[in-house]
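agent> step 3/5: call structure_predict on target 'Protein kinase domain-containing protein' (Anabas testudineus).
agent> reason: downstream docking stage needs a structural representation; sequence fetched in step 2, passing through unchanged.
tool.input:
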Amino acid sequence: METGLGPSQVKENDILHSDSTSYQILNFNGEGCFGKIAKCRNLGTGNIEAVKILKFDLIECEVEMLEAIRTLDPDKTNIVRFMESFQFQNLSCLVFEMLDRSLLDLIKERKGNPMNLNEIRPGLGIMHADLKPDNVMLVNHRDQPFRIKLTDFGLALPENAVEPGMFIQICAYRAPEVSLGLLLSTAADMWSVGCIMAYMYPGRNLFPNNCEHNWMKVMLHLLGQPNHWQLGSGIYTSDYFTWENDSKDPLWRFKTPEEYEETTGIKSKMKCKFSWLVKDLEDALHRCTTDGDPTELKDREVFLSLLKRCLHVNSEGRITPSEAMTHSFITMVHLVEDRETSIYADAAFQLMTALKEPISTVALKESRRRLYSEEPVNSSAESSLTTRTDSFLTHFSQTPCRGLVKMNFIINHLLERTNG
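tool.output (status=ok):
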């Protein structure tokens, strides 16, 4: 490799050298303005690991955050395992355990089929500040289905280092307090968790990602307007709202696309999307569901209650990670009384156990059989590890909203991470 190469010029089969070992680049799994993610072979151990290759001046903040969380158990906190950092020539490199695929990749593989709520239920004072499906990685979807870890701490920062007006998060997952220029906290991460929940359920982003003015309009339409105090304190409030005190009841009025362009110089991209066809958040979710038995419908309402608390427009009213961990959707307490009489409830508990612990193919098949009233499983025919979960997951993914357990599992892991 020639001296002076940047991340964009690194290619397959190049060798990266650290003080302790060397890494051979096998292929690339992702690329962005920051650099590249390379799948590499550790030539010292033979292990396959992920190397994030960045421009030199972009590494310091991320390494600081990774070192801060390195003392935590990466398996218990669902954070990607950080191996080492090093400089090679003018490249900055971060080495991580190799994970399977991102949540975004999984959704794309489904070709638009939404995740059911059973797939959503599962998943230090540091703000991640960039929670989105791209950064939620499946560890090993075949052997540990829906077991996730959080990656990419390039925008992470200590909560006490946050200042009003800091701009974080991509538009579709950005909390209202970020857009308005208010003081930020880990509540912004909880907003992103809610956006991820909403994305997994209907299989589309709840909020647009193409225009901040359009994002704000959709947010107001689905969730309502932030309170008077928030709007009055925001550094960027005047980009989106104008104060009208001509009447007896002064109020903040949302700006028209023309007013927004005049203020910011940015043309608003107001397009007719799914969000305009629904009345509110509840209506948006109900339009993405199919009928279910009474227990499933009850489970769906509990999911909606958690989603609403994650997407509270005022950060002080938003649910905290520790509160969310005790929410009924996560604990499934609302399903306990139905376990003896409802196939849905019984299968939900069995599936949560199946996803939390390594179990046999037979147990997974039995959980599916109970949910769908199939014929009993022939244990002698289910011995292959390679087919342990494939047909089960395929069957589940093609049946919209049939249960919520695996969704619980993923969100459970995200909450464990944001809870520190």
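agent> step 4/5: record observation. The first strand starts at residue 15 and ends at 17.
agent> proceeding.
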